């Protein structure tokens, strides 16, 4: 049984169909990459898996660990171990980064019937993760994402993944807006989280991210459907030839 199973998924936003019968399975221990042109449905797919409001599922199912979560609230999905790393993380003025992290950890622990995390354990987890991601103490004391650079925002997201320890991680264009040094640091943080128990769905336009986070499987998403699936060489083929060969004749008509 796959960690994530999506079957014949149809989804729309503002009554515009975006996903048009998408089927996908992500196994524990594997990194699956989704590549596709703008408007193909990549970000919609990530949002629908996480349960973000505003998207309407008209057909199909999403199963996580064998459970149908198609209609599950987003907070319940997060508590169950699904984490979405946003393409453009939002700023939350007035909420300290560490306060946010502690609240998120305790919400997960409460959902599992556990008590709140001890402050010493919390600080140990935060400080180790921050060192690995080259995040200075001063950044931890700031409001979440407020005034952060693009690289700082993405490292903050990886820090959240590190301390929350989700089982399914959806990386929506982790490389967006990052220079090569910032991308390397973020990618190294993701690679440290790879384990036989976790699955990853890595959404990207570019090979440069997949040079750092090497996928096990690559999917080409065009016009709301997976058009082709292969090994990492498929991404290299795409880099050379573009999306033209993967666009169905009826797309855009």
Keywords summarizing the entry:
253 residues, Rossmann fold, six-stranded mixed sheet, 12 strands, AAA+_ATPase, Fe-S cluster assembly ATPase SufC, P-loop_NTPase, ATP binding
What percentage of the residues does DSSP assign to strands (E)? Answer: 25-35%
Provide the domain count. Answer: 1
CATH topology: Rossmann fold
Strand order of the largest sheet: 6-9-10-3-11-12
The averaged pLDDT comes out at 91
Structure class: alpha/beta
**Main β-sheet, in a few words?**
6 strands, mixed
Helix-strand sequence: EEEHEEHEEHHHEHEHEHEEH
Please identify, by name, the CATH architecture: 3-Layer(aba) Sandwich
- CATH level-4 homologous superfamily: P-loop containing nucleotide triphosphate hydrolases
Shape: globular
Number of helices: 9
Q: What percent of the residues sit in helical stretches (DSSP H or I)? A: 25-40%
InterPro entries: AAA+_ATPase (IPR003593), ABC_transporter-like_ATP-bd (IPR003439), ABC_transporter-like_CS (IPR017871), FeS-cluster_ATPase_SufC (IPR010230), P-loop_NTPase (IPR027417)
Pfam families: ABC_tran (PF00005)
Organism: Phaeovibrio sulfidiphilus
GO molecular function, one term: ATP binding
Task: Please describe what this structure looks like.
- By secondary structure, the chain is an alpha/beta fold.
- It has one domain: 3-Layer(aba) Sandwich (Rossmann fold), CATH 3.40.50.300.
- The protein has 9 helices and 12 strands.
- The longest helix has 15 residues, at 97-111.
- The radius of gyration is 18 Å and the shape is globular.
- The N and C termini lie far apart (37 Å).
- It comes from Phaeovibrio sulfidiphilus.
- It holds the Pfam family ABC_tran.
- This is Fe-S cluster assembly ATPase SufC.
